[in-house]
């Protein structure tokens, strides 16, 4: 039982920032744009958007500004 719990919660602190985004729609659209430009072979635009995406993920403050500050689990508790 302990091994199962350990596997389930393994590296949760690394995943929680991505799994608890309240409104990830803008990031999803950015990822879709990168995918579209890659398929169209417009690699300069793809590279620009990819760099932007990486900069967003590397900055927790920017990530919060884009996805919202309210966490999912607090919304469920308040309702």
What does it look like?
By secondary structure, the protein is an all-alpha fold. It is built from 6 helices and no strands. The chain has helices spanning 2-8, 12-19, 25-39, 43-58, 60-67, 72-78. Helix 3 (25-39) packs antiparallel against helix 4 (43-58). The protein is elongated and about 50 Å long. The protein starts with a helix and ends with a helix.
Entry summary:
The chain has helices at residues 2-8, 12-19, 25-39, 43-58, 60-67, 72-78. The chain has 79 residues and is an all-alpha fold.
Shape: elongated
Approximate helicity band: over 70%
**Distance from first to last alpha carbon:** 33 Å
| Helix-strand topology string | HHHHHH
Structural class: mainly alpha
Mean pLDDT level: 84
Please state roughly what percent of the residues sit in beta strands, choosing from under 5%, 5-15%, 15-25%, 25-35%, 35-45% or over 45%. Answer: under 5%
Low-confidence stretches at least 5 residues in length (pLDDT < 50)? Answer: none
Instruction: Specify the number of helices.
Output: 6
CA gyration radius, whole angstroms? 16 Å
How many strands, what sense, and barrel or not for the largest sheet?
none
Tally of DSSP β-strands = 0
Kindly list the characteristics that best describe this protein.
79 residues; mainly alpha; elongated
